[in-house]
Write a structure and sequence with these properties.
The protein has a 5-stranded antiparallel sheet. A 4-stranded antiparallel sheet has the order 11-12-10-13, sandwiched between helices. By secondary structure, it is α+β, with helices and mostly antiparallel strands. It has 3 domains: 167 residues, Uridine Diphospho-n-acetylenolpyruvylglucosamine Reductase, domain 3 (2-Layer Sandwich), CATH 3.30.465; 84 residues, Alpha-Beta Plaits (2-Layer Sandwich); 76 residues, Alpha-Beta Plaits (2-Layer Sandwich). The protein is globular, with a radius of gyration of 21 Å. The protein is built from 13 helices and 17 strands. A hairpin with a 2-residue loop joins strand 11 and strand 12.
């Protein structure tokens, strides 16, 4: 196994590789087709390179544990905007979540409806391509960049275009207060309609989810603002019966941590799918999924579905467009169905990009099909 401790050593390891490389970050999200090759770990590329609280920016090496970054930000009452989650319990994995892995998978939690995904907060990236060349794009401060936007390209590339060595993020101030608004006893169709109504309001919702018959909204900000917006949302939702308001910060934090980490499906047998759709299509797709257990996030734009082992959800209502990713299943099911949603229309573009950035085809070959 290669464990380079510097970007130069990373470059040398890739340049001198005689065969395929299996890129590993913290080992917490082993998604995709199995990769055969020498393991190249970024775990020793660790540490915060630059943190400027006044400029709301942070720069860290790819192998830096996410917990280390969040602890440093908490001391300055700051945070990553996109709410990275921890999926180890959901996937049954060990390891340590790293910031490079977050970028490689383009992670985003419930705040995506407000702050976007990891890609939207990423302002700079350094990586080593398949030829061993070090490439830098973006910067260490918030500003416009010219040329190709490789920052956005690397987010979600799962190590198939290059091995990330360093990343830069814009930050946001911490949360002063929060509350959760709850409407009970709703169907998926009613839930999506309610979420659309609230998300179309001016009351700055940072979370909108549905599960177990409950529609949940999160609001964050200063205490006075929370009190005002809670009252306004109660009025807005009065047509739907009793509205619950939870203002205890610890309880609200637990509620949304469970949503982000898909706690409802921890230690539950079955295959787990992550489905990204247009929110208005979510009720129809949930209805077509039949016996599958479901949970909705992102106002209905994200569906988590728990199915019987071996179920092919891509064959269900294929006319409903979106991405259906097989997150958890046994090896035989993964081999049969594949992890990532097939995109035949983009195949030529993806192949062209990989040929450009990895001409030898050694970086996670076959991972994404």
């Amino acid at each position: 196994m290669f464990e380079p401790a510097t970007e130069q050593h990373l470059s040398e390891a890739i340049r001198d590789a005689s065969g395929p490389l299996k890129i590993r970050g913290g080992g917490t999200r082993p998604l995709g087709n199995p990769v055969t090759g020498e393991v190249l770990s970024t775990a020793k590329l660790s540490g915060i390179s630059l943190y400027e609280p006044g400029a709301l920016t942070i720069v860290a090496q790819a192998g830096t544990p996410l917990a280390e970054i969040e602890a440093a930000l908490a001391k300055e009452n700051q945070r990553l905007p996109f709410e990275p989650m921890d999926h180890r319990d959901m996937l049954g994995t060990q390891g340590t979540p790293t910031i490079g892995g977050v970028v490689a998978a383009n992670i985003a939690g419930p705040r995506r409806i407000q702050a976007g995904s990891c890609r939207d907060s990423l302002i700079g990236v350094r990586f080593v391509d398949g030829a061993g060349e070090t490439i830098k794009n973006g910067g260490r401060v918030m500003k416009n960049v010219t040329g190709y936007d490789l920052v956005k390209l690397m987010a979600g590339s799962y190590g198939t275009l290059g091995v990330i060595s360093e990343v830069s993020f814009k930050l946001l101030p911490g949360i002063a207060a929060s509350a959760t608004i709850c409407v009970e006893g709703r169907s998926p169709e009613q839930a999506v309609a309610i979420m659309a109504r609230v998300l179309g309001s001016p009351f700055e919702v940072s979370g909108a989810a549905f599960g177990g018959g409950r529609v949940l909204f999160r609001i964050e900000g200063f205490a006075q603002s929370i009190a005002y917006r809670s009252a306004q949302l109660e009025t807005l939702l009065s047509d739907y019966g009793a509205v619950g308001v939870e203002t205890d910060p610890d309880k609200t934090r637990e509620i949304w941590s469970n949503i982000a980490n898909v706690a409802a499906f921890h230690d539950t047998p079955g295959d787990l799918w992550r489905i990204s759709v247009k929110p208005s299509d979510a009720p129809a797709l949930v209805a077509e999924l039949g016996m599958a257990q479901t949970m909705l996030d992102w106002g209905g734009g994200l569906i988590w579905a728990l199915t019987e082992p071996g179920t092919d959800l891509r064959a269900v209502a294929p006319e409903i467009k979106g991405h259906r990713t097989l997150m958890r299943a046994d090896d035989a099911t993964k081999a049969k169905l594949g992890t990532f949603h097939p995109e035949p229309g983009l195949a030529a573009i993806n192949q062209g990009l990989r040929a450009k950035f990895d001409p030898r085809g050694i970086l996670n070959p076959g991972l994404m099909g």
